[in-house]
Amino acid sequence: MKIGIVLNPASGRRGRRLFWSALRRALEARSADISLRETKGFGDAGRHGRELAEDGCDLVLAVGGDGTVGEVAGGILRSRRPGAVFSFIPTGTGCDFARNFAIPREPSRIAEHLLTAPVRSVDAGLLTCENEDGVSCTRHFINIASFGVSGKIVSAVNEARRGRRLPGPMVFFYHSLMQILRYKPCKIRLRLDGEDVYDGPITAVAVANGAWFGGGMKVAPGADVSDGLFDVVIIRGAARLRLLTLMNSIYSGNHVKSPLVSIHRARLVEVWPAGEAAPVDSDGEAPGHIPARFEILPGAVNLLV
Questions:
Q1: 132 class by beta-carbon count within 10 Å (0-12 exposed, 13-18 middle, 19+ buried)
Q2: What is the tens place of the pLDDT at every residue in 274-293?
Q3: What span, in angstroms and rounded, lies between the C-alpha atoms of 304 and 60?
Q4: DSSP structure string for 56-69
Q5: Is the peptide bond before 9 cis (omega within 30 degrees of 0)?
Q6: Residue range 220-249: average pLDDT?
Q7: What pLDDT does 164 receive?
């Protein structure tokens, strides 16, 4: 079996890097033909994923955080072989996409699964937004894209050196707390499947394929990666104290009971700013800001878990 691996060497703490070394030995012991590419900066993972798919790999494997996972999946979808089989090993700060699946922990079991497990089709999203230069850009995502304070949180997590020494959930909790204390709700106009559903201030809106983001926040408890629909979670603007209380309940999914929260399902999400443009995040990366468009791609990814 020819396995193309895209490895983010900066992802994860020392224990996870040792775990990856053990997994590679387990794969090689099972006669896997491995082609390894390492990332050095933003965009590398998508380019490597595309090239490995086009090189005819039986499996393209992302080893890294949610950003690496989303980039590699997007690279495959942009390749001449968009049906190439994809899988991932979570070693990053948040590892939220992995929470949607029951994944074995032992390297030997993971290696066996990668060589024998069945493939399933899961959905992906296609995001179009404006980058910092005001130019329209497109990006695939496999877990969650969002905008509002979540975009500021992702940027803070990615930029903070301090967070690299802490466990992933603590990194996201700390920066979520700091950004909510500083955040001023922005006003938006939101349209779902051609129907205007909200016009007003928001704290955040999550366009969810998977259920988790932010290092373990169960923002979309009912999301299903294979149902052909986004779960769109609107968190309205409110006073900081109410938002801090709400943030704590997101980890269990109980925030859905709050009058500040509403959940909708849609295939197409469109948003425009009614004032200051809110930043967008996509699988843990920060590609730009609204206005933005999010389109579901049903069954686009052949995923092996």
A1: exposed
A2: 988 999 999 989 999 999 99
A3: 10
A4: T-SEEEEEESHHHH
A5: no
A6: 95
A7: 55
